[in-house]
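QA checklist item 7 of 12: single-chain prediction sanity check.
[x] sequence parsed
[x] length recorded as 251
[x] structure emitted
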Amino acid sequence: TVFDAVIDRYFHPSQWHADRYLGLYPEISKAKQRARMTNGIDPIRYTQDVIRDKYRVVYSSSPDRGLHHLLAMWPTVKQQVPAASLHVFYDKDKWLATVKQLKEAGYYVNTAEVASKVEQGIKAVEGLNVEFHGGVGQWQLAAEQLKSSLMVYPCDPVQPTEGFSMSCLEGITAGCTLITSNADALGELWTDAPGAIVLPLPIDQGVWVDAIVRELSGDVDGHQPRIPEHFMWKTLARQWQKEFEACLQIQ
């Protein structure tokens, strides 16, 4: 905050993020804050011609943000929708190894309990059509999202984390039905997004299972890629240009 006098703008991907920042640093200039300077997406990745599977569920965020909840729900989902498959995209092995190494080195790790639950969940879903794909490139991830009918993201971070969520934006752009929580900025940004279902924290597994099963049992004819104009780079570039021009005029 000592540099506030020489900072022209503070950019935030959501109003939640801006409010939290001002709460942490109330001494900085409120007039310099700019909320909703969001991340963006390249729609060309979502023009790939792939076949969508109505029973395919995708999860593509960090394991500590809710994967343990989804794995705990999956046996019940699978029991009610036998054709369902779950596809997880993240290098979970590297993440789990990092948590273990830090603990063994004597450090406090705030995600250690979640990591333990993820490991338990992995064992619990063996043989239940769950695939852990690891980390993949953006084009492959887009293709995998396009193949899916549902993105399930029971976001429940151990500390304030989600100021935007690229996973949510990618799922919506891919034409998936998005089921997520109202953690952090997610309720603000995605409640009114097309094809989104935002459920409240704390995670109620029964409510989530019902929502997942209902969507998997529905029709996928309306699941087409949705290119959100306000999250495209050309739109965001105009916003950045406007802010930069305003800063130059100030000088």
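[x] summary fact logged: Strands lie at 10-11, 33-34, 53-59, 85-88, 130-132, 148-153, 177-181, 196-199.
[ ] second reviewer sign-off
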